[in-house]
């Protein structure tokens, strides 16, 4: 069976941080969201103290299912004593985080540079 194409660009940056950047503009399809969640969860599973930065650069639309996936990833990272940061969120999407009060659950930064500085 062929491996599904990733919708993420993943790279390691200094201080043991894994940077995840969405390679798609619209994160709406449930099967895509499931695949993204599994891929990120796999990264978390192999780390003892995961540090992840998820960049939303270029993302224009995000479904409520994607928000649920992010909460699940945050919980998995937290259970391992890790840290998660979000960055580069479009103002319209950031408003959804604010309305749903998810902006109080996640550490959201304007850009990758400030997010990277926030890791301890």
Task: Please give a handful of descriptors for the protein shown.
about 40% helix; about 120 residues; alpha/beta
Structure overview:
- The chain has a single domain (8-117), classed as STAS domain (Transcription Regulator spoIIAA).
- The radius of gyration is 13 Å and the shape is globular.
- Helix 1 packs parallel to helix 2 (64-79).
- The longest helix has 16 residues, at 30-45.
- The mean pLDDT is 94.
- It is an alpha/beta fold.
- It has 4 helices and 7 strands, in the order E-E-E-H-E-E-H-E-H-E-H.
- The strands form 2 sheets. The protein has a 5-stranded mixed sheet. Strands 3-5 form a two-stranded parallel ribbon.
Strand elements, count: 7
What is the string of SSEs from the N terminus onward? EEEHEEHEHEH
Mean pLDDT metric: 94
C-alpha end-to-end distance: 41 Å
Low-confidence stretches: none
Strand order of the largest sheet: 1-2-4-6-7
CATH fold call: Transcription Regulator spoIIAA
Strand proportion, as a percent range, falls in: 15-25%
Please identify, by name, the CATH architecture.
2-Layer Sandwich
Topology, pairings included?
Elements: E1 8-13, E2 17-22, E3 26-27, H1 30-45, E4 51-55, E5 61-62, H2 64-79, E6 83-87, H3 91-99, E7 107-109, H4 112-117
Short description, anyone?
By secondary structure, the protein is of the alpha/beta class. The chain contains four helices and seven strands, in the order βββαββαβαβα.
């Amino acid at each position: 069976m062929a491996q599904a194409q990733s919708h993420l660009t993943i790279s390691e940056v200094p201080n043991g941080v894994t940077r995840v950047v969405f390679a798609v503009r619209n994160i709406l399809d449930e099967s895509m969201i499931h695949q993204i969640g599994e891929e990120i969860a796999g990264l978390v599973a192999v780390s003892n103290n995961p540090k992840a930065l998820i960049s939303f650069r270029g993302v224009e639309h995000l479904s409520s299912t994607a928000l649920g996936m992010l909460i699940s990833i945050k919980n998995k990272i937290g259970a391992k004593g890790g840290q998660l940061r979000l960055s580069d969120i479009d103002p319209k999407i950031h408003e959804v985080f604010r309305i749903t009060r998810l902006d109080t659950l996640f550490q959201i930064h304007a850009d990758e540079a400030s997010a990277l500085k926030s890791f301890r």
